[in-house]
Design a protein that fits this description.
Radius of gyration: 23 Å
Number of domains: 1
Number of strands: 0
Distance between the termini: 6 Å
Structural class: mainly alpha
Largest sheet: none
């Protein structure tokens, strides 16, 4: 019999494969984007637009994926749950698209793109199409149709990458950067549309015999998750929007270009923090149905505690690996004009470690139907993000954004642990929490002291220092093995 922990991590690898491959391929697009967009300001436009995409991507599925996973556990007919979950998604997305279609000139002016209203229509189309495909893809996950799920996601990713390469390498004129932005948005829209085509058989079987009482129950369950998701995306992407809006002064010549350049530098360096983000995305695809699947398991709390131990170990390892090897990873960014922002990478990496721990802890309010606490926690985190960015971006630029992200996620992690232990206590091994986290921080600080001692900046590459740093990482791996080897033996005996 397979251990549930083994099952979770195997599903993380499987369901996360499209996300991992996609993120890695997008990683490989960073050299392309930073090469064709020679000015950070041009890359900043793209980053700014995708910040708005991220907001809408959280809002428009209206939490129905999680509601679907939750309600099929209550012995309800899966087809009925799915059909009724799809109704509000379709209504909301149709309304949003029509609103964007008729109001895009005003929205474009507010976003400082009054000459490019087509940007607004394209990003609106992308998010609406993705939201329509999200619930059918969630059904594939719930029914363990992993091969089909992976193939659809990978097909969309590969089409997006191929179209990017063809458009930017063969047809793009560097003297007209706005054309490159249009090419990228159109490629994304076509790739998103492919997902709808590939799940059309699921959509075609939907029957709109609506059970409004069931829809109401699902919306009541999901609305706090929508609020939490929106607040969460504030923490993740609002900084790019605020950087541009707060640093722009219409009375200063070239102010808009300079403000957008700050967005471009910050966003390009943020890409180097993607390894932890990739792990989180892959893990979330598998974790949500896994956690709900443990609802009737008498030993679920012990399983959750062991999962947390391994999760913290893995994300802290990722934090160390990327932080110590920035000197190598920076070469993914082709223009040295972006390197000034490399100092934000370790801060953002550790912020995502805190976020990952919070994701794990969130199981308590989802399983106990106290999703309102998820909204409270996310709103508090969002308030911290907004406040710090508003106060300090004018003085410190994107460094304020990086620290705001860390403080917001750290606060959410602490609040979730406090309320979780009060309302749905899980016996987490806090000794290992602190051992793994503080050891990772200590190793990074030691490495930084050596780098400072050699008077090396993040822009420089020193092979000896990298070897030393990765030896420290190897020591961290050994520490994890010594503490978790008993669990590894259990895994082998249960497979």
């Amino acid at each position: 019999m397979t251990s549930p922990i083994v099952k979770l991590f195997s599903q993380t690898a499987l369901y996360g494969l499209p996300s991992i491959v996609g993120r890695l391929l997008n990683y490989l697009l960073v050299p392309l984007y930073t090469a064709v967009f020679a000015k950070p300001a041009d890359y900043g436009v793209l980053s700014d637009l995708y910040a708005y995409v991220a907001f809408l991507m959280v809002l428009l599925p209206i939490g129905m994926e999680t509601a679907y996973f939750r309600f099929i556990q209550e012995d309800k007919e899966p087809d009925t749950v799915f059909n009724n979950a799809f109704v509000p998604v379709l209504i909301v997305n149709s309304a949003v698209f029509l609103t964007l279609y008729f109001t895009n000139p005003w929205i474009a002016k507010w976003m400082l793109y009054k000459e490019h209203t087509e940007y607004i229509l394209l990003i609106g189309s992308i998010v609406c199409v993705d939201a329509i495909a999200a619930l059918p893809l969630a059904r594939l996950r719930a029914e363990n149709q992993s091969k089909r799920f992976v193939s659809i996601q990978l097909s969309s990713i590969m089409v997006n990458i191929a179209l990017n390469l063809i458009a930017l390498l063969l047809f793009f004129n560097p003297q007209r950067p706005e054309e490159g932005i249009l090419f990228i948005l159109i490629a994304n829209l076509l790739a998103s549309g492919l997902k709808v085509v590939l799940v059309y058989d699921i959509i075609a079987k939907i029957r709109f015999a609506n059970d409004w009482n069931l829809i109401k129950q699902m919306l009541l369950y999901s609305w706090p998750l929508i609020v939490a998701g929106f607040a969460g995306i504030i923490n993740e992407t609002l900084d790019r929007v605020l950087l541009k809006q707060l640093l722009y002064d219409p009375n200063i010549p070239n102010s808009l270009e300079q403000a957008t350049a700050q967005v471009g530098i910050y966003s390009a360096c943020y890409k180097l923090a993607m390894l932890v983000t990739i792990l989180l995305q892959a893990y979330r695809y598998a974790a949500e149905p896994f956690f709900f699947g443990q609802l009737k398991n008498q030993d679920r709390d012990a399983v959750f505690a062991k999962v947390m131990n391994l999760f913290i170990a893995v994300v802290c390892f990722a934090f160390l690996t990327v932080s110590i090897n920035i000197g190598l990873l920076k070469f993914f960014i082709r223009k040295e004009a972006y390197y000034v922002g490399l100092k934000v990478v370790p801060i953002l990496l550790f912020a995502n470690v805190c976020l990952g721990i919070y994701y794990n802890q969130s199981v308590w309010y989802k399983l106990s139907n106290r999703t309102k606490f998820g909204a409270y926690i996310a709103l508090i985190g969002a308030a911290i993000t907004v406040l710090i960015n508003l106060l300090f971006i004018p003085m410190y630029g994107y460094m304020a954004s990086a620290w705001a992200t860390l403080l917001a996620y750290l606060t959410q992690m602490i609040l979730s642990y406090y309320w979780g232990q009060k309302y749905y206590p899980i016996p987490y091994d806090t000794r290992k929490f602190f051992l793994y986290i503080l050891s990772a921080i200590g190793i990074y600080c030691l490495f930084s002291l050596f780098r400072t001692g050699f008077n090396l900046s993040l822009k420089e590459l020193n092979v000896g220092l990298l070897v030393f740093g990765n030896c420290l990482v190897s020591g961290y791996v050994y520490l994890i093995y010594r503490n978790e080897k008993a669990l590894f033996r259990i895994k082998r005996s249960q497979t």
